[in-house]
Amino acid sequence: MPALNDDVLLRVASFCDIETIVTLMCTSKHVYELVTRYEQSIVKDAVALYTGYDSSLFPPSGSISSSHNVEREYLYPKSYDILNELKIRTSRTEIILSPGQPLRSKIDSIFSTSGAFLDLPQIERELLMARLKETFKVVDRLGDCAADVMSMWMLPADNGNSSQKLDGDEAMLKIHDRQLAYIRSLSPLDLAYLFHLVSWAGQAYATENAALMADVDCWERLLAFKEASLRHGTIMLWAVFQPPKVKKTVDRTDDSTHRKPMTELARFAETCIRQILEEIRIYQSTESSQNRLPPSLHMTMVKSFVEKTGRPSTRHAIEMERLILDHIRID
């Protein structure tokens, strides 16, 4: 069987996930050297395919944050680590939005209850779910602002990079500023889908954590969860909605208000939520003239939609629903 030429091999590699690329590299020394040599161009093509050739869905630096554990390691631009991370994100999105999972169940229940999305035709439901999957990428783009800021001091000095490292507070403010800027750059339609994704995720979170939502600060906790999802990306959604590895036996003592054992990811999510809860308490107890906290991402999302559409702020949710329904409607 004649060997494929290098151009064809590289083109094939650009459509492969990381496991397939590794398998491809094991076929021969020549292929190994070729795929290694053209790592950056292969990853560049794969990223373009993942984003649908929408460059706004990837940080300008090309670096992103890993989500396979709570450390959120910095992943260098155009490296095969990027492909592995995109594979993880795609897989988790499919699982979280699969039938029977908490978030998907909440969305399905909305289709069968009163409201704007009641009794949507099946094809329009499918279009809505497809767009929500794309919105997961928007949420991760927000979380990747952290890697974008880190890239300022992670690049080698011989690349002309002279940026000084920021301390923890400075870095967090810089990341937040970039997240605010990205939200403000989104179209009204993107903002509408983003708002509904985090809103529905919040409702599913409340259903899954009845014990926590029984506390006096339940509404603040719900807002903190939505804010944390915007700040950290879909790792937050995976942390609270990932299926259990071992199915538990349900007995008579099973209680929906019982606090579940926490995984490392769940502890990460709870820590993020508690930090934002503290910010909310500070905001509520501080005079407006003395408040130095930056605007929240959730508030900025709503405000940006109102400013871009000129709609009354009291009707933003209704206007967002209408925009989505117009977008998925099949005449």
Describe the model.
- The chain is mainly alpha-helical and 331 residues long.
- It has a domain at 82-156 and 164-245 and 257-328.
- It has 15 helices and two strands.
- It has helices spanning 6-13, 18-25, 29-37, 39-50, 80-96, 102-111, 122-143, 145-154, 168-185, 188-208, 218-232, 235-241, 264-285, 297-309, 316-328; strands spanning 64-65, 74-75.
- Strands 1-2 form a two-stranded antiparallel ribbon.
- A hairpin with an 8-residue loop joins strand 1 and strand 2 (74-75).
- The chain is globular and about 65 Å long.
- The chain starts with 5 loop residues before the first helix and ends with a helix.
- This is F-box domain-containing protein.
Short summary:
With 331 residues, this protein is mostly helical. The chain has helices at residues 6-13, 18-25, 29-37, 39-50, 80-96, 102-111, 122-143, 145-154, 168-185, 188-208, 218-232, 235-241, 264-285, 297-309, 316-328; strands at residues 64-65, 74-75.
